[in-house]
Amino acid sequence: MSDTSAHTDAHTGSTVSTLSTEGAGAITRAPLAVVTGASSGIGLHIAAELARRGHDLVVCAEDAGLDDAMADLAEAGRHVVVPVRADLATTEGVEHLVREVGAVNKPVDVLVLNAGVGVSGPFVDTPLEDDLRLVALNVTSVVHTAKRLLPEMVRRGEGAVLVTSSVAGTMPGPWYATYAASKAFLLSFAEAIRYELDGSGVTVTALMPGPTDTDFFRRAGMEDTVVDDMHKDDPADVARDGVEAMLRGDDHVVAHSWRNKVQAGLLKGMPEKLKAATHAQMSKEKDSGANAADHQHD
Ligand SMILES: NC(=O)c1ccc[n+]([C@@H]2O[C@H](COP(=O)([O-])OP(=O)(O)OC[C@H]3O[C@@H](n4cnc5c(N)ncnc54)[C@H](OP(=O)(O)O)[C@@H]3O)[C@@H](O)[C@H]2O)c1
């Protein structure tokens, strides 16, 4: 087995771990991938998948769980990993990530904008700060990070962007209205930039997972919802689908199970009210009854 080592990068101050036969701290000529939300779930598996395919990584998350992820990623391949702890729901957090990416002094080949959270409950009851933080992370940080890192990729004329949207973004989401709306934004945003960049050498792909077995539902306070009891895809399968679609340059991929693909297909052309009703059957609380009126009279 190769040696694993870690040192503090003189430029970034970040821990640089290497799993390399080329010597500690060796910056290889491997392509560089930046992955947000890489400490757990889908993002961690995307980072591991890219590491196995020979990418160096800048991985970003907010909490100390990123340190455990570093150990997992060290197992995944022969590469350099730069961890960046940043709260991407803030302007300063995004700018910190951008600075750390710049300090690596390598062009960004792959940009994975994946960090996201959910907020569950009737919109009139959820705390305003939770909804605003969701928008700041799921929407604003994606626009901000792309605005800062994408132009250089376009100038170089090569690269790939993967944006984690959701099947939830294809329909209004009663009882997690801001979440579904944020994912609809990301789907539209990814498709629009993709169109603008046609022929530039940079592709943009939207990853659209359905229910996936990660910490997402607990963090979103969705443990009492119907969807939390449904079959969930393995995040490793979802990540692989996303990475493969991105490397092929596809416009989007519905991951992973056929149920998600069939659902996404059936939703096309449905009136918005029917889509909202379909979504509500999953996002409602298990014992809450089947319709909006039940919630309105809580
Ligand atoms: N799970 C599903 O069913 C599902 C379905 C469709 C789409 N998605 C999307 O997939 C993406 C990944 O979610 P997941 O399911 O893998 O959930 P997860 O395991 O909870 O992962 C979320 C990741 O985002 C990071 N993150 C959260 N808040 C952050 C912040 N303020 N600043 C920086 N990083 C932050 C987390 O790091 P910390 O722990 O450090 O905060 C973690 O690495 C999200 O965009 C989610 O909307 C998930």
Percent helix, as a range, is 40-55%
Number of separate structural domains: 1
Q: So how many helices?
A: 11
Principal-axes geometry comes out as globular
Give me the strand/helix succession: EEEHEHEHEHEHEHHHEHHH
CATH architecture: 3-Layer(aba) Sandwich
In this entry the ligands are: NADP nicotinamide-adenine-dinucleotide phosphate
Name of the CATH homologous superfamily: NAD(P)-binding Rossmann-like Domain
CATH third-level topology? Rossmann fold
Q: pLDDT under 50 segments (min length 5)?
A: 1-28, 292-298
Give the integer mean of the pLDDT values. 86
What structural class do you assign from the helix and strand content?
alpha/beta
How much beta, percentage-wise?
15-25%
Distance N to C terminus: 59 Å
DSSP strand tally = 9
Across the major sheet, the strand order is 1-2-5-4-3-6-7-8-9
User: What is the rounded Rg?
Assistant: 19 Å
Characterize the largest beta sheet: strand count, sense, and whether it forms a barrel: 9 strands, mixed
Q: Under the CATH scheme, which class?
A: Alpha Beta
Quick structural overview:
The protein is built from eleven helices and nine strands.
Describe the overall structure.
This protein is an alpha/beta fold. The protein has a single domain (25-296), classed as Rossmann fold, CATH 3.40.50. The chain is built from 11 helices and 9 strands. The protein has helices at residues 41-52, 65-76, 91-104, 128-156, 177-196, 216-219, 226-229, 235-248, 258-267, 272-283, 292-296; strands spanning 4-8, 15-19, 32-36, 56-61, 80-85, 110-113, 159-164, 202-209, 252-255. A 9-stranded mixed beta sheet has the order 1-2-5-4-3-6-7-8-9, sandwiched between helices. Helix 1 (41-52) links the parallel strand 3 (32-36) and strand 4 (56-61). It is globular. Residues 37-43, 61-63, 65, 87-89, 114-117, 137, 164, 166, 209, 211-212, 214-216, 219, 235 line the site of NADP nicotinamide-adenine-dinucleotide phosphate. The site of NADP nicotinamide-adenine-dinucleotide phosphate (NAP) has 29 residues, from helix 1 and helix 6.
